[in-house]
Design brief:
By secondary structure, this protein is an alpha/beta fold. Helix content is about 50%, strand content about 10%. The two termini are about 35 Å apart. Bound molecules: (S)-3-Hydroxyhexanoyl-CoA (3H9).
Length: about 700
């Protein structure tokens, strides 16, 4: 027996235990161990077999690190075949999360039981894959095609009770001891002479599937695919489960799984999976850095941002006190939160009782004196350095020693804010993205003097409230917003060169961005960028720079909030519509500025908008603002809706080839000048050495 799979007999039940921490992934040794145990058990005196796992979870899937490497037998299908063909019943005993290949192992078992807190799911789509060990064939056979389609294309896990209601598991066993529950259940099955249930023996009658069901599903999924091909292939697999023998469906599933596992989309999404986990690790901090206790949080500012931040903490049961300047502002802030929860409840995401519990965790005050017992403060007032310094000086006076003082600023200098206190070691940035209760990214900003334990605590609390954390050093705009500069600039320059707003946006939306840069400007408010530019002295003195954004603001076209910006917006539906008036205006502005308009290819639109992200990313790495290239990818995928199937700007650059990116930037420099297009030295170096950002990042670890 392999050292990760063990076997013991308890009351005539053979118990196969997998022990491959941290998540019992199906590495080669696990597959070999299960196969050996099931095979050997066929000849012993046991009545039934229980398959269970040690540690925090049942098998959480295939070992993702093995993808892309030469396969080593036994393959999962062989293991599942041995389970399914066992002459005595095999019962999966599920705790934690049975995911992907792990859930598929359980589906090959004759029976599945789980403790109530367990979850099951097929999340492969989130890695650009499909369940490749029979999941697309077995789930529709026991739960129907609709359930299978929802479950496999969403990738979201479901709880044990729901899984039982959907026939995906057979029994929810009481208590927390899954082994004891499973053995008792196995004995019951043996005593009642329960048959060897093999899901493969079920045939799905085509008459039970509505005509056009799969075509409609494909259409619907294509509309939200954003560069993903896996959802379409999943539909094809489930379609192959209908009316066909199991083996035909399995062949189809294998063929399409192999296509996906070698696709650039899946490679990018697997990169993001590991990048997300890597980003949580701070290079120079030991994993066991002590954490400060955070039981009560204060949020300064009851605006949209402050309210969203307060909700993040209340959602996980942490007490929050919201601070506003007067009762009226406080009532408004709390009112917005209440409204947001009402919407969440309406969508069915929270029950009335849960909302009441969350609201119960939130209180308000106008008195800084009430902050004496808080463990963490997050300041979320508007972007004014002097105001922020004033607030931090007040916090310094009232907060207890060791309280972490964080600013949600998007741009301001954390070190200058820290200097307003006598405890700069407790000050750091926690930069949320709007809407804060929805967006996954949290940039944690490390000041010059931030203490290690304060930093480690901010990262840990970020994870606790469900955020994906990435660490940034102090600079203007930190990682994400700093990189955005060139992206926004070029989207507007392209207009003067001859593009319509729709051309620019649809090129980027075709690439997979949730929204093109100009439509995004309209959503955020063009006046915001206009005001931010007013205060900047570092921008080149060029009348072409942000010309259209400036003209639109001066026409009172601020974007969606005024019903018009780069586009017009339908007052009722908010649908965006091209505006011929703006298209004509762009032409006349270009003529006035002496820019000769031309046809611009979609390829050029992408290069002009995306390559500045890559170049700035390279500068950010050289300066040590970001810890690693993959952290930048995490920031962009989780904070700026960069398409996950492209893996983030730095992974995308590696995919395109750094030499190609560098050569193009040099070409743009020769055409548009060094003010805008100056290749980053790191990009130049790696391009010349024929290296990737990923290789460089690995060397720096
Ligand atoms: C699949 O199954 C394909 C099959 O259909 C077909 C095959 C033929 N492999 O997330 P955490 C590591 S595709 C390797 O922080 P949590 C992870 O990198 C797979 N490593 O813990 C991290 O390492 P480190 C389908 C894995 O408690 C550590 O484990 N399954 C895998 O917050 C802890 O992870 C999935 O997609 C893996 N499969 O969450 C499930 N999973 O400590 C993916 C984790 O060095 N996993 N690691 O940074 C998850 O969703 C979460 O890890 C889980 C635990 C919910 C299980």
């Amino acid at each position: 027996m392999s050292n990760v799979v063990s076997y013991q007999v308890v009351d005539n039940i053979g118990v196969i235990s997998v022990n491959n921490p941290p998540v019992n992934a199906l590495a080669q040794v696990v597959r070999a161990g299960i196969l050996e145990a099931v095979t050997a058990a066929q000849n012993d005196a046991t009545d039934a077999l229980v398959l269970r796992c040690e540690g925090r979870t049942f098998i959480a899937g295939a070992d993702i690190t093995e993808f892309g490497k030469p396969p080593q037998g036994p393959g999962l299908p062989e293991v599942l075949g041995a389970i399914e063909n066992s002459t005595k019943p095999v019962i999966a005993a599920i705790h934690g999360t049975a995911l992907g290949g792990g859930f598929e192992v359980s589906l090959a078992c004759h029976y599945r039981c789980a403790i109530a807190s367990a979850k099951v799911g097929l999340p492969e789509v989130k890695l650009g894959l499909l369940p490749g060990a029979g999941g697309t064939q077995r789930v529709p056979r026991i739960a129907g095609v609709k359930v299978a389609l929802d479950m496999i294309t969403s990738g979201n896990p479901i709880g044990a009770e729901k899984a039982k209601a959907l026939n995906l598991i057979d029994e929810v066993v009481g208590g927390d001891d899954v082994q004891a529950g499973a053995i008792a259940y196995a004995k019951e099955l043996v005593a009642s002479g329960a048959p060897l249930k093999r899901i493969r023996d079920i045939t799905i009658d085509p008459a039970t599937v509505e005509p056009g069901f799969f075509d409609a599903a494909r259409k619907q999924l294509a509309a939200r695919a954003r560069g993903q091909i896996a959802p379409d292939r999943i539909v094809s697999c489930i379609e192959a489960a209908v009316g066909q023998p199991m083996d035909a469906g399995l062949d189809r599933e294998r063929e399409l799984f192999m296509e996906l596992v070698s696709s650039p989309e899946s490679a990018a999404m697997r990169h993001i999976f590991f990048a997300e986990r890597q980003a949580a690790k701070i290079k120079d901090l030991p994993r066991d850095t002590p954490l400060r206790e955070v039981k009560k949080v204060a949020v300064i500012g009851g605006g949209t941002m402050g309210g969203g931040i307060a909700m993040c903490f209340a959602n996980v049961g942490i007490k929050v006190v919201m601070v506003e300047i007067n009762d009226e502002a406080l009532a408004r802030g709390l009112g917005i939160i209440e409204k947001n929860y009402a919407i969440t409840m309406k969508k069915g995401k929270l029950t009335e009782a849960q909302v009441a519990q969350c609201m119960g965790a939130i209180s308000g005050t106008t008195d800084y004196g009430d902050l004496a017992d808080v463990d963490l403060v997050i300041e979320a007032v508007f972007e004014n350095l002097e105001l922020k310094k004033e607030i931090f000086a007040k916090l310094d006076a009232v907060c207890k020693p060791g309280a972490i003082l964080a600013s949600n600023t998007s741009y301001q200098d954390i070190d200058a804010i820290a200097a307003a206190t006598k405890r700069p070691q407790d000050v750091l940035g926690m930069h949320f993205f709007s809407p804060a209760n929805v967006m996954k990214l949290l940039e944690v900003v490390r000041g010059e003097k931030t203490a290690d334990d304060a930093l480690a605590t901010a990262m840990a609390i970020g994870k606790k409230i469900g955020k994906v954390c990435a660490l940034s050093r102090v600079c203007y705009g930190f990682i994400g917003n700093r990189m955005l500069g060139g992206y926004g600039r070029e989207s507007q320059m392209l207009l003067l060169d001859g593009c319509t707003p729709a051309q620019v946006d649809s090129a980027l939306e075709g690439f997979g961005m949730a929204m093109g840069p100009l439509a995004m400007g309209d959503l955020a408010g063009l006046d915001v960028g206009y005001k931010a530019r007013e205060g900047r002295t570092d921008l080149p003195n060029d009348p072409k720079l942000y010309r259209m954004g400036t003209v639109l603001v001066e026409m009172d076209r601020f974007g969606q909030k005024t019903g018009a910006g780069f586009y017009k917006y339908d007052p009722a539906t908010r649908a965006r519509m091209n505006d011929p008036e703006i298209e004509a205006l762009i032409k006349s502005e270009a003529a006035a500025l002496g820019v000769e308009q031309r046809e611009v290819s979609e390829q050029e639109i992408l290069e002009r908008c995306l390559y500045p992200l890559i170049n700035e990313g390279a500068l950010i790495l050289e300066e040590g603002i970001a810890q690693r290239p993959s952290d930048i990818d995490v920031v962009y995928v989780f904070g700026y809706a960069f398409p996950a199937p492209k893996g983030g700007p730095m992974h995308y650059a590696d995919h395109v080839g750094l030499k190609n990116v560098y050569d193009k930037i040099c070409e743009f420099r020769d055409r548009y000048g060094e003010d805008y297009w100056k290749p980053a030295p790191l990009l130049e170096k790696l391009a010349k050495e024929g290296k990737t950002f990923a290789q460089w990042g690995a060397e720096q670890e």
